Amino acid sequence: MTGLLAALTLLGCKDRDAPGDDSAPVVSPCEPATYALGLPSDTWVGPEVGPGGDVRYFASPGGDRIWGGSTMNGVFRSDDAGLSWTTIQPPRTHVLGPMAAIPGQPDTLIITSEEVWRTTDGGERWTVIEGLGGTNPEEGVRALLEHDGTVYAFLGGGDVYASTDEGQTFEWRGAAELSGPAPPHSEFGNAEWQWQAVATDDGTLYAMRHHRSLFRSTDEGRTWEEIWRRMIVAGSLAVNGDQLRIAEEDLVFAMGPDDSEPWEIAHTASPVVAIIPHPSGDFIIATDDRIHYLFDSTLQDIGDPLPHHVQGATLTPDGRLLVGHSEGIWEISPETNTWVDRSAGVVDRDLAVLLAHPSCPERVYVGTQCQRGFYESDAWGEDLAHMDTYMHYVMVARTNPRRPEEIWVTNDNTVLMTPNLGEVWRQVTDATLAWHVHGLALDPADPDHVLVGSVGSGIWADDGMHVYSSDDAGITWESVSEGLPDSQSSAHALHFVLDAPGVVLLGTFRGDDISHANGSGEGLFRSTDNGQTWAAVELGGRRDVPKIAECDGHLYAAADRSVMRSTDAGASWNEVTEGPDPFVALTCHGDTVIAFDLGRQLQRSDDGGDTWADYNEGIGPNPLGNQVLHDLAISADGAVVYLAVRGEGLYRRGL
Q1: Is 46 a domain residue?
Q2: Is 510 within 8 Å of 489 (Cβ atoms)?
Q3: In this structure, are residues 296 and 265 in contact, taking their beta carbons and an 8 Å threshold?
Q4: Residues 6+ apart with CB under 8 A from 233
Q5: Which domain range does residue 469 map to?
Q6: How many domains does one find in the chain?
Q7: pLDDT tens-digit series, residues 79-115
């Protein structure tokens, strides 16, 4: 949080409406912009990208090639031994365990996102390994290890598979059988199923399950012996020669080939997140906020404490120390013993959701569909800053019309709210609403009345498409789905009609998990009792309605291959433009309406939808593939229009 933002937040909170007070004047939480933005109006510029991070895993085949893996942000490739990086987008952008590089094969990398993916061309193309892994926690692959020509894959439940052809095929090799009860099934990527494995010079394999057990195999993974049962931390296992180091929270243990179990040698000030071997035969210990050199049982600090959360570390082939953290990658300078930012090229292009703040013209928020979460900019989209709160799958972001410093976000299987422009976030849904919710709307007449819509298909699906209502700002929720069909679709676009109190619109869209790539919606629904009951609205057979916008008494809806307009509070609709491909993004300001379709075409109207013109200057022809979540927004002063294209970033132009 910048000092300016903190000051603006205080200004906004100073005159904040009391909960439930719909009569007090709305006070802007932002001061007027102090500088002008010179964006061209005749072409799009960009894309701007978000800063990448959450770098936890490293692998190197030797030479200058180093790979970095992020739990949220995909894969990064360095061709200059970690000085700079290229962001790679594998089909699944979660790297959920140690990666495997093949010595002497710089373009080959094997990663796990519970499935196993392999590239042999430096990350341009990826192939999934059929029959290995899955979303069931026991079946998901949670660690990879390359040793002496064999690639080992460790599944959450303890099964071990091996490949002797550089990861092309895998066969079952053995199982590290866990004693005691397994952890409960839970969300994708749960750390309780995490594994890590290492190999000594003589081929002895050690594998550890997070918070469970340490195993040893002396026959290339065919049989395993449980040798230690403790609250071990995944990531904190390393071997140097035949010496093993392992951590349990802030305790470091050692184990040699003649020891029956590990023994304590050091105590750190904060929990250990990674241990890596040093060429001297010693080890480097990474904790949450600093790095240590471990010599025998003595810890020596390396550099100053780190301001961001450390997640992983590695030594480059030429002996330089790189540290992965929540906001990128750093290197320790051997000359000054200070940290140098090596995050060049570590970016997040997964920008898919927009919120132009309605009271702050220069402020825009951008959400990712499957990566780092939520970003903010106080400079019309420049210098995007990551908000340090887990969001990841951002679906919809909205401000409270009566409390503009209050922002709501639907994401993953929860809804978050901040009362102070992002300084503090809190969850406003509990286990009774713990599934994929997408649609979101806040009542302009009642600041405590909120509607959210769920998705009826996919991994985190509700038992059908539903709408839920809260009359107390998210403290309690109830289903308000009377009149909606029994459907696996998404309750996607919710909108309170400004000029018709009590009227709410619901646009439905494809379900199919967070990607919304398959299936279809159920059309448009309308409520005249503040979202309590619903009735279908005739749209001429159009079923997918992903966006609804309202300006100057006119309503607009993206509906299949049409943009529709209503002048009677959504009771009836007429087509005002069409395209060869489905429209997926829509925004308006005054009489200006802009729409974006899956053919990558933009159209603009400056007369409320009566006539339309091409608006594509500066937007290249890159195909969108099966990506359907994109967004448009216009700044509150009508100066800037934003386009978020998932997988590319944020485009901007003067309106």
Answers
A1: no
A2: yes
A3: yes
A4: 210, 211, 247, 248, 249, 271, 272, 273
A5: 388-611
A6: 1
A7: 999 999 999 989 888 888 999 999 999 999 999 998 9
